[in-house]
Amino acid sequence: MKDTPTSERTQSSRLFEKSHEYGAGDQQPAGRLKFDQLQQELKAYLRQESKLFFKTFWHMIIRPAEVVNYFLDGHRGKYYNPINFFFLIASVYAFSSAFLLKYQPTTKTLESIPDKEIGMFLSEAVKLSVEYGNIISFISVLAFALVHFVFFRKKEGYYYAEYLVLMMCTYSVGLVANMISGVALINVDPTFQMAYVAIFLPIYFGYFGWAFRSFFGLSWHKAFFRTTLVLVLGQLIYISVIGLVGAAVGYVYFQYQ
């Protein structure tokens, strides 16, 4: 019987050979692992995962529909899993946001509010929003997918989970653009608030328009109408959820002060 070829992923993840000579012609006992072998395995894993990650990211820029449809059609292996892709980028985004927080004038402005208790509470709220940035990002994705589902599911026939996969992939690219623009602008403008908004938002909006046009086969004006609808309503849902949570936390905070 003809042997089935072993996949590249399986070959790269093989931990050790059946036999490995060491010492005075002895064989290494089965199941034993040296540190250099573990190091080689780690390097092979990182090379393969990084190659797959950057391939997925690049294709999400130039042909996003292909990446999303590949996963929705049940295929695996060619691109990074959208769930892993999103949470990896969201985690890095939360870390970079924590780094940028010390350059963020908003925190100092809030701390200088005459009412010290309110100022400190709002300042802590900003810090918490940064620390839990990946959770907040996920709420945004859930809200954007919900707008797709409510307004377009009857016409397009997609499930909520399918819209969610689309938004995970596209929002991940948006987070990377957010990180790059934020890090770049703090070196140009110490306050960087207005410059950040003026540069980042058109890129963010334009990419979502391109992704929706690619995935749904829309004309440009329909794509940008849909982008406006999804981002505006999704943001309102997101703000409402965060506002309710913030109000609850604030109530508890002042009750025990």
Overview of the structural elements:
The protein contains 10 helices and 2 strands, in the order αββααααααααα. It is mainly alpha-helical. A hairpin with a 3-residue loop joins strand 1 (21-22) and strand 2. Helix 2 (35-62) crosses helix 3, helix 4 (82-100) runs parallel beside helix 8 (160-185) and helix 5 (105-111) runs antiparallel to helix 6 (116-131).
- Let me know the average pLDDT: 76
Estimate percent helicity: over 70%
Main β sheet profile: 2 strands, antiparallel
Q: Please provide the count of β strands.
A: 2
**Proportion of beta-strand residues:** under 5%
Brief summary of the model shown:
The chain is mainly α. The chain has 10 helices and 2 strands, in the order αββααααααααα.
Question: What key attributes describe this structure?
Answer:
257 residues; mainly alpha; two-stranded antiparallel sheet; 75% helix; 2% strand; globular; disordered N terminus
Helices, strands, pairings?
Layout: H1 8-12, E1 21-22, E2 26-27, H2 35-62, H3 64-72, H4 82-100, H5 105-111, H6 116-131, H7 133-156, H8 160-185, H9 193-216, H10 220-255
Antiparallel strand pairs: 1-2
